[in-house]
């Protein structure tokens, strides 16, 4: 059997390194054809030395010479710059693109990979949030082209195995509620960067951890589900489930509800995206049924988590609103992490950006990029 050849975009991040763990466990089935990193040349060099991919890209040109010095062999072609990354996406040798880039920078690679007929395993939810309307024509109503790595969407995909999409009544997306689930207004208004970075269940990158604290992440995931599964907002519900054991659920038209469960471990959705619709063994921690457990569920409180509401409003508004939401949120989170703004100003900046920026008439890649730039510039100054 031919090995599945992977292009791992963002190989030094949390999803990227876990993808390489899976490649390491299945050398007979998976091959790291190419790896790319934004700035982390040290980790990239280690990965190149271990996996010996045919190609590697460091986007940050200023440290390229350090990468060259740190690579111990000549089997890998070392490239630098975003253009080279984009070029690899359509390379003949690539079967699957694992897109774990952060933010809107992930959109174009998703688009060109789908255009070129590649399978995309998608951890970059912004691709769908911002450009879902432009990507939808390439999905053809099937699930095997663009496979979510996001745990909630992977859960839904797993619940849908063997089902007819016409029988879906509702997708029920679970949310951990983040570190501020039990905090009141007053406490939230004083939240620090350190508080917001303490996610109770998942160990992830800084941007998504802040998005989990504000619940913007859940809003983005509703938009993601809307495009992935082709369902309107009235068929997508969100429920807070602090234990993060039920990763999401599907309600069918006969009242039956399926849930996908497990201890939080991103390696499962990553591996499932590579093996779908098949499964491979994955050594993992399991729930201990010899002791008592409680699974609890509670509604989302829109008052304390305005970012979640803003995301739903953006998808209702359609057009460019999700792009503005995403761009202004990326900037606001950046500014919060730098302690330029307070925690509650994140949602204020997003709300102001949504009402301030006007929509161009036609939706295209160019106009999306223009709106993205405008929203970022505005969110930087407001
Ligand atoms: Mn998720």
Overview of this protein structure:
By secondary structure, this protein is an alpha/beta fold. It folds into three domains: about 5-150, 3-Layer(aba) Sandwich (Rossmann fold), CATH 3.40.50; about 150-265 and about 285-305, no CATH class; about 320-380, Orthogonal Bundle (Rna Polymerase Sigma Factor, Chain: A), CATH 1.10.1740.10. It has helices at about 15-25, 40-50, 65-70, 80-90, 105-115, 125-140, 150-160, 185-190, 195, 205-215, 215-230, 265-275, 305-315, 320-335, 345-355, 365-380; strands at about 5-10, 30-35, 55-60, 75-80, 95-100, 120, 145-150, 170-175, 235-240, 245-250, 255-260. The strands form two sheets. A seven-stranded parallel beta sheet has the order 4-3-2-1-5-6-7, sandwiched between helices. Strands 9-8-10-11 form a four-stranded mixed beta sheet, with helices on one face. The structure holds manganese (II) ion (MN). Manganese (II) ion binds next to helix 7.
From the spread of the alpha carbons, the general shape counts as globular
For the biggest β-sheet, the strand order reads 4-3-2-1-5-6-7
The low-confidence runs, each spanning 5 or more residues with pLDDT under 50, are none
The name of the CATH architecture of the largest domain is 3-Layer(aba) Sandwich
Q: What is the helix tally?
A: 16
**Strand portion:** 15-25%
Rg over CA atoms, rounded to whole Å, is 20 Å
Give the topology string: H per helix, E per strand: EHEHEHEHEHEHEHEHHHHEEEHHHHH
Tell me the domain tally.
Answer: 3
Number of strands: 11
CATH level-3 fold name of the largest domain: Rossmann fold
**Distinct ligand kinds:** manganese (II) ion
- What is the mean pLDDT? 95
Judged by helices, strands and strand pairing, the structural class is alpha/beta
Largest sheet: 7 strands, parallel
CATH homologous superfamily grouping of the largest domain = NAD(P)-binding Rossmann-like Domain
Query: Class of the largest domain in CATH?
Result: Alpha Beta
Distance between the termini: 56 Å
Q: Please give the share of residues in helix.
A: 40-55%
